[in-house]
Each structure stands twice: as C-alpha cells, then as structure tokens.
Write a structure and sequence with these properties.
This protein is of the alpha/beta class. Helix 1 runs parallel beside helix 6 and helix 11 packs across helix 12. The protein is globular and about 70 Å long. The protein has a five-stranded parallel beta sheet with strand order 3-2-1-8-22, with helices on one face. Strands 4, 5, 6, 7 and 19 form a five-stranded mixed beta sheet that branches. A five-stranded parallel beta sheet has the order 10-17-11-12-13. The chain has 13 helices and 22 strands. The protein folds into two domains: 257 residues, 3-Layer(bba) Sandwich (FAD/NAD(P)-binding domain), CATH 3.50.50; 109 residues, FAD/NAD(P)-binding domain. Pfam families: FMO-like. GO terms for molecular function: flavin adenine dinucleotide binding; N,N-dimethylaniline monooxygenase activity; NADP binding. Its EC number is 1.-.-.-.
C-alpha cells in the first residue's frame, strides 16, 4: 500500500466536513472517524441514505430539471426501483448487505431477494450508521450553500482551510424543501470531502421543438409512479437502465409506450425482442428528430406519433453548485477535473477530496477504498505525490482514454473500461447501458488496481464474480426476469450460505 512504509509516524487529527450522507458520504464519515479525525456530515434531507431515501415529491414548476443547479428536490428514485446489482456485491467490506430482519415500521418490512427494492438499501444504510455510531456526526436538514477556501492570516502558509456555509432546511409536504429564516452559518474546517452524488442534476438533450412543445415534458428525475400517465401515449427518450425500467413500469397503464434509441439495430437485443413480444403497447423507435407544436413527435426515420408526454431518460450531470475553488476544479462535458485517481484535485490536495465520482463501479466497495485513502492521507499515514506529478498523471490518463476513443463525458466511467482495449471499450461505452458496460475485465482493471495500490481492502471473491457473470448473461437474455432467476452453480449456492451466516454477527445492527 503506497505511502505506508517507513518509521512510525505521528498521525494528525483533522477537522473534516463531509458534504452528503448518502452511501459515499457515510463511507467517508466512517473511515475518517476510524483514522481519528473529527467529522461533521452535512445532509440536506431529513435522514441519511441519499438517493436511496425515497421522496415522493417532485418539483412541479421544473419537471425537466432545466433550472440552474441545484434542483429543488434531490431524489431521483422512482417507486418501483429494484437493484440491478446483486446484493452480495453491494456491501461494505466488514458490514455485508445481508437481508435485513426488519419486521416493518420505519422503512417497511425487509426484502430478502438478491435484487431487492430501494427500501432495503435504505434500511441497510441506516443499519450501517447504527452499527458504527455515525448518526451523532450527521447534521440533518442542513444544506451546504458554499464551500470556499478560508482567508489565510498574513504570513501563514501550508494547506488551505475551508469555510463551509450552510443553512437549515425543512422537508415540506409540498413539492420542494423550504429554507428556514435562520441565517447562513459559517464554519472553518481543515478538510472537506465532497460526497453529494451524481444522480440529481438532469442532463437534457437538445431536440428541435422542445421549447415550443406545450404538452407534458419531464426528466426521469421527476418520475415516481405510472398512474399519472394512465391512458396516455408516452415517448421515452433513451433506453438505458432507467428508460427500460420506466417503460416496463408504464406498460399496462399508459395506452402506448414508445421507447427511443440512438440505434434501433443495436437496441434490438434478445431481451428487447422479448419485451416487445410481451407487451403489445410497447414500441421501439429511432431517436426523436423533433417535437411539433400540435403534439406530434417525429422520429429520425420520418415516422411520428401524437404523444401526451415525453420523458427524458438521458442521465445526469455532475454538479457542485456550492463549491468555489476559483476555477481549480471544473466540470467540462461531465468530466470533473483535474482529479488525481478521481479523488484529489492536485492543486488543493489533500484538504479537498471527492468520494463517489466514478460511475459503473462496485459500490460501496470503491467508495470505502477512496474514503480510507483520503483518511490516511489526511492523518499522514499515507502520502501523495507532488502536485505537478498528480496533474501530469491526470493528463496522461485523459490522453490515454482519448486515444482509445473514449468520449470526455465518460471520463469517470471506470467499470469495464481499459484504454488498451480500444474496440471493446468504445463499444461498451457507446451502449450507455450500465449493465451492458460490464465485462469479464470488469473486476480486473482500474478499480482493483486502485484498491490494491492505496488500501488494504480485500478483493472481491471469486464466487461473487461468478454471480456477476451470470447476471450479465441473464440480463442480455430477458430484462424482465433476470432478477428472479434461480440458476446459481453449486459453488455459488454454498458460498451464499456461508455469506448469509455472517448475518448473525451483524444481528445487533439489523434486529
């Protein structure tokens, strides 16, 4: 593990602020505390969980999410969400995501399935907080409005400190949070860890006629349940994971569902063919060419349909509206940078860091590794290269991906991406479907290299890799049934039983 050799060090304790109490923020809080740092987590919602804390509200005044950041309703979770990753791969290294034993009440009853619903993840994160005593470090209903370098006294050098400005908010029963009359509070911290997630700020396409189309338009960020679309004709722009999920959610409720893809040929997989055969009200269309003022949606092949609603399932943009670094950290075409190893901005390291920026990664395993590295660098247990070396490494990394044909907007998509495997990587990234982006190399490239280089976390076990590979085969075959198949090998069955036995050791947190 880099930076850990040599004589014993006098470890430093830092006063650290973590922005966000979702999966990444909780990973950061736990690791910072373990290393002896004083931690304050600021969370704008009324509970921990981030996106996994379901919120039925939407912002009716901005269903597209087109207003300047930040969005007024943070959650993008729709009611029917089930995991697309097996729970066996979604736990912290020492607190596995075994089925909860909740009998009801807060968060509802437990969901023991391999691919449970979103409430099971929320319960797991609450149990994680309880098991490691994190709640006393979390300030709920606290929105961070600005993070900037604190002024330095004359003649004082060293690492910058950070002024964090926050205000109290309350979750209303209406359509968005209400800010309290209390004035903005400012505190100074030695370090700030940004862990606010990247599934809140909608990314919208540019389509002719969008601004003039007077019928209902929304981003999937504002979708919750299918009932408002009963009997309507709905067009879904994008057929990634959320597009496919929402299309199936609408089938049988909407009169017609038209799912669009950049390439109909590429989208017509065996799984898609089965979906179309199973649902007569579901149609696959090419990309949308334009929206007409009379409600007609015209597709790239010249065909059209009169629609009642258009839902944009077009992904999310990285957004840090509270962060003021004087231009030292920017977001350009969805590349956050420069970030050394997707974590540290060279010019501001180690006092500013990010957890959870990579996409298509094993969570929370990678978040835990990032947080552990940050905590150890802040304490002095580990060290970073000089800023110029970190910046040079970032530039070389970006150039390698560009040579491999990886678009800038996929800079942080690290699962299944190896710039040395040009054709394979580009084909996978072009699909923009997270499950399809995984590969046999998924476990062997950037994530594993990062974890092995900077932390002492254990590798993902072989039987878990086998589950993933089986999942990839199943999802390509049948999108509607892949979560509920029972086709484990005997090795996986026995390994799962041993894994489930771990629940006894976590009983104190899950009862």
């Amino acid at each position: 593990m880099a930076g850990d050799d040599g004589p014993p060090l006098r470890l430093r304790s830092r006063k650290a602020c973590v922005v966000g109490a979702g999966m990444a923020g909780l990973a950061a809080a736990r690791e910072l505390r373990r290393e002896g740092h004083a931690v304050t987590v600021m969370e704008q919602r009324g509970d921990v969980g981030g996106q996994w804390l379901y919120d039925p509200r939407t912002d009716a005044a901005d269903l597209l999410g087109a207003a300047p950041a930040p969005v007024r309703v943070h959650s993008s979770m729709y009611a029917s969400v089930r995991l697309i990753s097996p729970r066996e791969t979604m736990g912290f290294s020492d607190f596995q995501f075994v089925p909860s034993r909740h009998g009801g009440g807060e968060g509802g009853a437990g969901d023991p399935r391999r691919f449970p619903d979103h409430r099971e993840v929320y319960r797991y994160l609450r149990d994680f907080c309880d098991a490691f005593g994190l709640m006393d470090a979390v300030r709920l209903n606290t929105r961070v409005v600005r993070v900037a370098m604190a002024p330095r006294p004359p003649g004082e050098g060293g690492e910058p400190k950070w002024a964090v400005m926050s205000m109290n908010v309350r979750e209303s029963e209406g359509e968005s949070d209400q800010e309290e009359e209390a004035a903005v509070q400012e505190e100074v911290f030695d370090a700030v860890v940004v862990a606010n997630g990247h599934y809140s700020q909608p990314k919208l396409p540019t389509i002719n006629g969008m601004e003039q189309w007077r019928r209902r338009q929304l981003h999937s960020h504002s979708y919750r349940v299918p009932d408002p679309f009963r009997g309507e004709v709905v067009v879904l722009v994008g057929c990634g994971d959320s597009g496919l999920d929402i299309a199936l959610d609408l089938c049988g409720v909407a009169r017609e569902v038209h799912l669009t893809a950049k390439s109909v040929e590429a989208a017509t997989t065996p799984a898609m063919s089965k979906m179309l055969a199973n649902h007569g009200d579901l149609h696959l269309r090419p990309r949308v060419d334009r929206l007409r003022h009379d409600g007609r949606v015209v597709f790239a092949d010249g065909s059209s349909v009169v629609a009642d609603a258009v839902i944009y399932c077009t992904g999310y943009a990285y957004s840090f509206p509270f962060l003021d670094t004087g231009g030292l950290v920017t977001v350009d075409d969805n590349r956050v940078g420069p970030l050394f190893e997707h974590v540290f901005p060279p010019a501001l390291a180690p006092s500013l860091s990010f957890v959870g920026v990579p996409r298509k990664a094993i969570a929370p395993w990678l978040f835990e590794a990032q947080a552990r590295w940050i905590a150890r660098v802040l304490s002095g247990r580990s060290s970073l290269p000089p800023p110029e070396e970190m910046l040079r490494a970032v530039e070389e990394y970006n150039r390698a991906r560009e040579v491999a044909g990886v678009p800038k907007k996929y800079s942080h998509d690290i699962g299944g991406v190896d710039p040395s495997v040009r054709t394979f990587s580009c084909r996978l990234l072009a699909s923009r479907i997270s499950l399809h982006s995984m590969s046999n190399n998924f476990f062997d490239q950037e994530m594993y290299e990062f974890v092995a280089k900077y932390t002492d976390l254990p590798r993902v076990e072989e039987w878990k890799r086998e589950i993933i590979l089986t999942l990839l085969r199943n999802v390509k075959d049948d999108r509607e049934t892949f979560r509920d198949r029972d086709d484990d090998s005997e090795n996986v069955r026995q390994s799962v039983q041993r894994w489930l036995a771990m629940s006894a050791a976590q009983g104190g947190a899950t009862d």
